[in-house]
Automatic annotation (TrEMBL):
Belongs to the ABC transporter superfamily. CDD domains: ABC_NrtD_SsuB_transporters. GO terms for molecular function: ATP binding. Keywords: ATP-binding, Nucleotide-binding, Transport. PANTHER family: ALIPHATIC SULFONATES IMPORT ATP-BINDING PROTEIN SSUB, TAURINE IMPORT ATP-BINDING PROTEIN-RELATED. This is ABC transporter ATP-binding protein. Residues 9-240 form the ABC transporter domain. It comes from Thioclava arctica. Gene3D superfamilies: P-loop containing nucleotide triphosphate hydrolases.
Amino acid sequence: MTAAPVISARGLDLTFETNDGPVHALKDINLDIERGEFVSFIGPSGCGKTTFLRCIAALETPTGGTLSVNGMSAEEARKERSYGYVFQAAGLYPWRTIAGNVRLPLEIMGFSKAEQVERVEKVLSLVDLDGFGKKFPWQLSGGMQQRASIARALAFDADILLMDEPFGALDEIVRDKLNEELLKLWERTQKTIGFVTHSIPEAVYLSTKIVVMSPRPGQIYEVIDSPLPRFARPLDIRDSEEFLQVAHRVREGLRAGHAYDE
Ligand SMILES: Nc1ncnc2c1ncn2[C@@H]1O[C@H](COP(=O)(O)OP(=O)(O)OP(=O)(O)O)[C@@H](O)[C@H]1O
């Protein structure tokens, strides 16, 4: 028997009603994400990547189709705290220490003081920020702040991690390092990850599955299963023939999905 997908979308549609008329943001999205997969969403600006992630998180309500998250509706899954969400900007409260920021969801959820301390220590260590708990966000580099926001999303140990361009604002060297660390973290925690990116190398380096989207309205153009080894991915795998072939396929998909715009 195969396990049910963690996330399953069937015929998912979303139209925003705006002052300028309806915006068809998602059209007929069909996708299964299995437990433990690392799935990237890539596509041009406005193709609905963020909107789809927000649907999974029940931050948007689809106008058609079905969506299940951990075997429940997205709304139920949100109430069950099935996912942690990492935004493009770290979004840390400047008046709280790093530990205080990471602890915040645990306070809201009513974890005991002792468990809060234990969990904060554990997740700060997972993102390589041991010893930084007492610092304030402004005392940390952009990359470290983003690691802290990942720690916050991991603090309550949800099965699913949703990440919306978490490293988009960082320079390439820092991004490379965080990509490597994220892979290790994924290996250690066995989470299911949904990851939005604009970067082809980032998508190919990280993912088991790459969802190429096309705009107006946002649709899935192609789903590419990566042939790369699941975890053993040193950064120089990006020079390998296999990697370049997948990157080429993604690029072709993006071009083809965009063709009617040209
Ligand atoms: N709350 C909203 N109200 C109206 N339209 C919206 C809303 N949110 C998103 N949209 C529109 O839906 C479409 C998809 O937006 P979305 O942010 O999901 O795209 P994206 O692929 O994540 O883009 P980017 O890569 O620029 O972040 C866009 O046309 C956007 O303008």
